[in-house]
Amino acid sequence: MNEPASPVPLAARIAEYGARRAIVDPGGTWTYDEIDRSARSLAARLLDGRDNLADARVAVLCSAGHDFVVGVLACWQAGAVAVPLHPPHPDAELAYVVADADVTAIVVSAAHRPSAARLAAAAGPGVTVVEVDDEGTGPEHGQAGWIPSTMERPALMIHTSGTTGRPKGVVHTTAALPRRSMRCSRRGNGRPTTASCSCSR
Questions:
Q1: Number of domains in the chain
Q2: Disulfide engineering: 167 pairs with which of 2, 98, 162, 197, CB 3.0-4.6 Å?
């Protein structure tokens, strides 16, 4: 039996940590509330009047830090599966992932917009480019709310390195995210950093 949809646990975690510092990167410092507001604004643009992206795949071509976290959160808030792209990779490799994942949109940092435009053009009609905008999206879009999810719902598509062939996309469910974030956030002494609090959908 499928688990019924329920409110997203991350929304409650963000509300709990609200004004606490969430991210520090070369561009500045952001609280959980600020990250959430930016992600909701971006999600509204991704939705573009729709209620739910219904597990459509959205590529995230963003710089590490604020933009990447906002991009992934916006995908989840809009009901999409996030497909991270590594900006330093050549266009040919990124284009392969875009095609393999059958993405419908590319969320991008301003610095990588030219690359995103090339990828969208190569992918053909139907792939839009949406830039992360920390200033919000204006009253015509507003802010999206969290779309109810289940632990079985796909949330993230990661492509392998492709050392034994072409990269293959592996879909991670909402249930797998806390385990993955704990592995990704361990540093040096083996203790999880505060970043592990921000990745559970």
A1: 1
A2: 162
Identify the pLDDT of residue 189. 38
Q: Phi first, then psi: give them for residue 8, nearest 5 degrees.
A: -70, 125
Long-range contacts of 112-117 (CB under 8 A, 24+ apart): 112/61, 112/62, 112/63, 112/87, 115/61, 115/87, 115/91, 116/61
**Residue 182 reports pLDDT greater than 80:** no
DSSP 3: P
Query: Do 186 and 199 touch, CB atoms closer than 8 A?
Result: no
Which of the two residues, 32 and 9, has the higher pLDDT score? 32
Select the more confidently predicted residue: 138 or 155.
155
Report the C-alpha gap between 156 and 176 in whole angstroms. 9
Does residue 38 fall inside a structural domain? yes
CATH number at residue 185: 3.40.50.12780
Q: Could you list the residue range(s) of the whole structural domain that residue 38 is in? A: 9-134+146-196
DSSP states along 112-147: GHHHHHHHHHHH-TT-EEEE--TT---TTT--PPPP
